[in-house]
Every structure is written in structure tokens, then in C-alpha cells.
Amino acid sequence: MVDLKSQYLRLKKEIDKAIQSVVENTQFIKGPEVALFEKELSEYLSIKHVIGCANGTDALQLALMALGLKPGDEVITTPFSFVSAAETITLLNLTPVFVDVDPDSFNIDAGLIKNAITNKTKAIVPVHLFGQCADMEEIIKIANEFNLYVIEDTAQALGADYIFSDGKKTKAGTNGDIGTTSFFPSKNLGCFGDGGAIFTNDEPLAVKLRSLANHGMQKRYYYEAIGMNSRLDTIQAAVLRIKLKQLDQFNVGRQQAASLYDKGLNDFGCIEIPVRNEYSSHIFNQYTIRLKKGNNLELQEYLKSYNVPSMIYYPIALHLQESYKTFNYKIGDFTVAESLCNRVISLPMHTELRPDQIEFIVEKVKSYFAFKSN
């Protein structure tokens, strides 16, 4: 699914030098590379504050903690996503309130959010899925109307542009109160382990976030809040500094690969290729197709027989997962999300994909449907 080795070999000289420098300096925790990376990422995003942390899940938890929400407060999010948003909401004794997703982009359907708002609602956590933004202009409008916080989960869309109706462009994750991301190795900007970051334009919020990520202290051994130990490792920051310079190029490479997939699959009537929303660029953390017929698990097994990797993001919607039964959701509550779980499948997507590899994958996807019809 992701060719990390080839990407590393392309940048080997720079990355090896950066890692070796950290080893020689022996400042493995909060070394200078961390602050430098935070500064460089803030400049790339055009946002005032970036706080590195241990992973993308911690980033979401820290964001929720910083907003001072109380047990029982409701937070709106999507049921069609990785579990991190719902998980952190629940761990903090908040109540996840799911809203179905848009049938084209698979992001949270902004048009349904108002129906889910109650007097307990305090925040919205849109997840920018598969590489493009949710409808942030509408989400921000709703948040302002109901005095709600917005936390953007941009783990799959770092570097994507959001385009407002007046033509203004901003980077994904910079339009809400807080943005979060993950540097998991398979992400568009991935490190060599776990890593994450939080970003905001709010100075007091930034101070609080940095304190919470450091055991709740600003001055050493003086704890002003109950915090966490969530640090971005210095070696990971050194790797990310090298890769950040290449992020736009990485994203263009993914877009070019997606265009080749499109060319091979666009006129094939058995599937739907990814939709590009007019209000967001798409940087293809995943290239996810939807089957008009057939079963995604069967297609996955068929591709596997030809050594073609694939992934199903996601096989079960969050509201139907065992761990979320306590919230009393049931089959049929979010029909779009539930349908996608049986219909979507993601094909290999990374910066090192060759045209001949994409051609082979496309041919095998098509041959599955010919096989099924016989």
C-alpha cells in the first residue's frame, strides 16, 4: 500500500545526516529540531502556533482537554473514520454524537449537523477523510451560530487547500479553533515512528496546549493542570524537517498517481472513482473507489491472489462497533456510512507508484468484475 523504503532511499543522504546529528548531540527529548520543525510547519500552514506531540490521537485528546469541556458535553463527529476522534471524546467522558457522511466525499455531511445539535453540544470534530477537506465554510458558519468549538482532524489531509466561496485559500487544519494531525509513517507527511501535532492561531489556547502536553506545567515541577506526557521525539522531528520540504512534491506525486487511476477506471461502469469537491484540493492519502456492485471483501481477496495490496477503510462504522454500543445507536441510523463499509476499497497510493504498477492494478480490478460475471 505504501512504499516507504523507496521514499527513504530518495532522501537517504539528508535523512541519515539529520538522524546522525541528533545521535551525536544526544538531545533526544525536546532537542532543537523539535522547535525548528514546529516553526517550519507553522510557516508552511500560515498559522501562528504548532505544538508537536506523540501521535495524532494524543493531538485530538489534548485539543479536547484544552477547551475545558465537561463530562456529558456532546461533541459531533463522523461515524465513518478511524476511531481516534470518537475514542478521545469518549475517554474524556464526553458524548460522541455521530452525523452521517456525504455520499460523494465521504466526509461528515455539513447539511445534517444542525439536526444533531442540542443544548449539550459544545464542539464539532470534522475529519478530513482520504485527502480532502470537509465543508469547512458551512461547518464554521454553524459553529458560529451555535457558539461551538471546531477541531479539525487533518491527519489524512495535511497540505490540502480549502477554498472558500470568495476564493480565499487556506491550509487544511487552520480554519477551526484547533487543528490536529498525525505523522504516522503512511501519512502524506510521515515520520519513522509515531508523531503528531496541534495547531492554532489562539495564543492562550496554544500556551494551554503546550502545557497540557508537558504534564500540565509551564515552569518545571509546577503543575497548573492535569496534563499528559506527549512529546514529539527529536529524531522524528529531524526526519519531518527533511520531509516537510518535500510535502508539496509528495502531494503532487499522489495526485499524478490518482489521475492515472482515474484514466484507467473512469469509464468503467462497475465502480465510482473518488470525487473531488470544488472547495478542497485532494492530496490522496488514500485512493478509494466505491463499488456499484460486488463486495469489497471479495475484491480484496481477488486482488490479494495477484499480490495486489488493498485496504478497506472502514469495514464497520463506528456507531456499530462493540465499544460504542453504550450510546444506543443501531443499524440504519447512518445509512450512507453503513453502505460505504461494504462498498469502498482503497488501492495502493504513495509517491513511488509507477505507471506500469497502476496499469496492472487497474487491469486486475477490472478483471475481478469479468470473473464475477462468468
Search tags:
single chain; 374 residues; alpha/beta; Aspartate Aminotransferase, domain 2; Aspartate Aminotransferase, domain 1; 7-stranded mixed β-sheet; 3-stranded antiparallel β-sheet
Characterization of this structure:
The protein is α/β, with parallel strands linked by helices. It is 39% helix and 13% strand. The protein has twelve helices and twelve strands. The longest helix has 22 residues, at 4-25. The radius of gyration is 21 Å and the shape is globular.
Characterize this entry briefly.
The protein is α/β, with parallel strands linked by helices and 374 residues long.
User: What would you call the shape?
Assistant: globular
Overall pLDDT? 97
Can you tell me the residue ranges where pLDDT is under 50 for at least 5 consecutive residues?
Answer: none
Structural class: alpha/beta
CATH topology of the largest domain: Aspartate Aminotransferase, domain 2
Order the strands across the largest sheet as they lie in space. 1-9-8-5-4-2-3
State the CATH superfamily name of the largest domain.
Type I PLP-dependent aspartate aminotransferase-like (Major domain)
Quaternary organisation: single chain
- The first-level CATH class of the largest domain is given as Alpha Beta
| SSE sequence, one letter per element | HHEHEHEHEHEEEEEHHHEEHHEH
Q: How widely separated are the two ends?
A: 29 Å
User: Over the alpha carbons, how many angstroms does the gyration radius reach?
Assistant: 21 Å
State the helicity in percent bands.
Answer: 25-40%
